């Protein structure tokens, strides 16, 4: 028992507002909140650990509509149709709307709530219970009409943290939508260039078929003249079915590529009406030559991962606030009477106001388990962010390496193709002049065809890699990352 000198008198207690006294008691009871030993373990990766040089020369930003740089009207139209009707993009947009609705719901919890209650009851009261006369055993009408109001006083920031978490998730969904947009456009462009590659290979296969038909006619003439044997004739005839098979195989691949492109755009058979230009007619856009130091701010998927860390951190704060008292201010005002005729009389008025306080004391570990789960979610969000960073740097590095290698390969291939074309012409001239055999012609033709296929493949790969690099660099996305993450990057594990 406390010493007498420290006991407050009854009069002094009455002089203290009851609500202030309750708040004082609650402040003392908050010592019951115990979440010690539960803390995040993951640590955010920082830019230097990824090998990004902040002092490196800046890389020009990518235009949000970068596909116009290829100067192909059909590609522009396909992208516009995809952005308008793609189911995958609409799905991402629906998720964004769902996240925004959750934000509105969390915001509503921070504001006062007002409702109305109107009821009328025709009731017989018990004659043998606790109901006093003259109500006992009688049948009466009762009515109530009143307004109710409540407001949770968020002293410990639970609702505010929940709102911030919902805002973070909404921002993450918004970034996911932009990431889906960049991915969709890049897939359309790459599928379009793949279709051009197959079409180029088909044209080459048709030229090969025509060339072999001409050679067959030449062999037949030489056999008729007694200059060649049936061996050369059978060899020439056998090369035609092989060329026809290659043409048919490419026709099949083109049909499948058109179907895939139409599916991406979201309009069946839209790719069937395309008039495919040659790969050489596609302009190339400017590309980066190094990994930009601000790569992390260029990619929507990384921005989404950062916002999820922010949301998970606020979820942890909200879970910690669950350990503290929950205080609601409630009130009502209206009319209540027995007998509907008396409902709106002044004597039927009623009102009330007061706090409602809930303090968790023993919950069998439910709150600690909830906090531990939210903390694990934060660790998972941080590690997902770290994985996205590493993957982004690798992605850009891969595309840069491929881009540089393809440029060197194209230079060497052009020289090899010029040599093989010259060797083929010499072999044909020697065969016509009777100075060489048909096997020499076939060998030289095989080298030419291989170089022509390689030329088409390298041209298509150059365009494909350029699109992949643009996507890896963010596709024109401008990040809007939470500042608190940058401020807390070094101490997220504390």
Automatic annotation (TrEMBL):
Query: Which InterPro entries does its entry note?
Result: MdtP/NodT-like (IPR010131), OMP_efflux (IPR003423)
Q: Where in the cell is it found?
A: Cell membrane; Membrane
- Pfam families for this protein: OEP (PF02321)
Coiled coil region boundaries = 233-267
Instruction: Provide the alphabetized UniProt keywords.
Output: Coiled coil, Lipoprotein, Membrane, Palmitate, Signal, Transmembrane, Transmembrane beta strand
Topology class, membrane: Lipid-anchor
Q: Is Transcription regulation among the key words of this record?
A: no
NCBIfam families cross-referenced by the UniProt entry: outer_NodT (TIGR01845)
Could you say which protein family the record assigns here? Belongs to the outer membrane factor (OMF) (TC 1.B.17) family.
| Name the record gives this protein | NodT family efflux transporter outer membrane factor (OMF) lipoprotein
